[in-house]
Design brief:
Length: about 120
């Protein structure tokens, strides 16, 4: 029998990894806010640039990326995030195609920066 609990242990640090800006909030925002309120340092890693976050074919994509990143940073702060949001800036919609040395280099950099964080 599987036992579920609402009383998860609160880690010292937690890293939330998401494909797009706003995915963290929909996926585990409540848990992160609860942990942050109990002293956990919350880190956010967003893999894509968010450039496809509109249905407007005439949108200025540079401006859209800047807006989505600002919104993500604001959302992280509202949830209690204590460190800046890291964006890998892979093109939105191409995450599945990200591969090779660039991706591996980022993985190692992220591992170094977020050493010791619980990854969710």
């Amino acid at each position: 029998m599987t036992v579920f609990t609402l009383d998860l242990l609160v880690p010292r640090r937690a890293l939330a990894v998401a494909a797009h800006p706003d995915d963290v909030e929909f996926g585990c925002g409540g848990t992160l806010a609860k942990w942050a309120a109990q002293g956990c340092s919350i880190l956010h890693l967003i893999c894509t640039d968010g450039s496809k976050g509109t249905w407007d074919a005439n949108a200025d994509l540079t401006q859209l990326v800047a807006i989505r990143q600002a919104e993500q940073r604001d959302a992280a702060r509202v949830l209690g995030g204590t460190e800046d949001v890291v964006f890998l800036d892979w093109h939105d919609g191409e995450l599945g195609r990200a591969h090779g040395d660039g991706q591996n280099a980022w993985a190692w950099r992220v591992s170094d920066v977020f050493d010791g964080a619980l990854v969710q």
